[in-house]
Amino acid sequence: AQSVTQPDIHITVSEGASLELRCNYSYGATPYLFWYVQSPGQGLQLLLKYFSGDTLVQGIKGFEAEFKRSQSSFNLRKPSVHWSDAAEYFCAVGSSGSARQLTFGSGTQLTVLP
Amino acid sequence: DGGITQSPKYLFRKEGQNVTLSCEQNLNHDAMYWYRQDPGQGLRLIYYSQIVNDFQKGDIAEGYSVSREKKESFPLTVTSAQKNPTAFYLCATKSHTGELFFGEGSRLTVL
Questions:
Q1: Which pLDDT tens digit goes with each residue over B9-29?
Q2: Which candidate from A9, A43, A96 shows the least CB-CB separation from B103?
Q3: Which helix H or strand E contains A28, and what residues bound it?
Q4: Phi, psi (deg, nearest 5) at residue B18
Q5: 3-class DSSP state of A62
Q6: Which stretch, A61-65, A97-101, B12-16, B92-96, has highest mean pLDDT?
Q7: Which of A21, A42, A97, B10 has a CA that sits 20 to 30 A from residue B22's CA?
Q8: What is the DSSP letter of A69?
Q9: Taking CB atoms and an 8 Å cut-off, how many pairs form between chains A and B?
Q10: How far apart are CA A25 and CA A19, in angstroms?
Q11: A 69-108 residues inside an 8 A Cβ radius of B
Q12: What is the pLDDT of residue A98?
C-alpha cells in the first residue's frame, strides 16, 4: 500500500529565510507526486507536481521540489520565504492508474516570523 | 468562473440527524471525490466516483452515503450512523492530467 510521511508537524522560519519541507513516500511503482498548500478554512491549492522527466520541478509562488528515487523523497523548497507563505502544506502520492487517486501526508504547518 | 462549489460552508447538526453537503462542479471533470480532514490526520478518502451513476467506497465510508446522478454534482450525506462527524469536508475533482482540484470545504459541527 502506498503511504506518505511528512516528518515535521510544525516548522517556524523567519521571513526571508530559506525553507525545506520534507516528504517521504512508499510506493511500488513510479509515483506521481504532488505538493498542495492550504490556508486556514480553505481548500487545497496545487503548488507543483511530478509525473516524469526532470527531477527538479518548479511550481507556483516560487516553490520547487526535487524527486529523489533513491531516497524515496520529494522535498519542497523555497529560497526566501514570505509572510504570506504561512499555511499548511501537504505532500501526496498516487499514479495515473489509481482510481482512488491520491494518498496524502498528515501535513506540515508553516509559521513565518516577521 | 470555472470551479468547485461546496455548500454550506458551515453547518451545525444535532445528534441523530442526517445532513447533506453539496458539491457542484463546472470543470467538466469525470471523477469526483469526498475527503474528510481532521487536525493532524491529513485527508482521508470517504467516497469517490469516476463516472455518473457509479461510486466507490474510500477508506472511511462507514456512516456516509453519496449519489452521482449528474456529472456536475456529487452530494455527500452524513448519516446518524457516523459516530464522530465533526470535521472539515472537502470535495475534489480530477483533471485529465491526474491532479486534484478542491472546493473551499464545508465545516460540520455536531452539537
A1: 999 988 889 999 999 999 999
A2: A43
A3: none
A4: -90, 145
A5: helix
A6: A61-65
A7: A97
A8: G
A9: 58
A10: 20
A11: 90, 94, 96, 99-102, 104-107
A12: 59
Cell numbers placing B35: 475527503
Q: Residue A82 is placed in which grid cell?
A: 514570505
Which one of B45, B50, B102 has the shortest CB-CB distance to A44? B102
Q: How many residues does chain A have?
A: 114
Q: For cell 489509481, name the residue.
A: A98
Residues B3, B5, B9, B15, Cα dihedral to 10°: -140
Q: Is-contact B90 B70, C-beta < 8 A?
A: no
Find cell 455548500 and name the residue. B7
**CA pair distance B108, B19, nearest whole angstrom:** 9
What is the structure's pLDDT at B40? 74
Residue of chain B minimizing CA distance to A43: B104
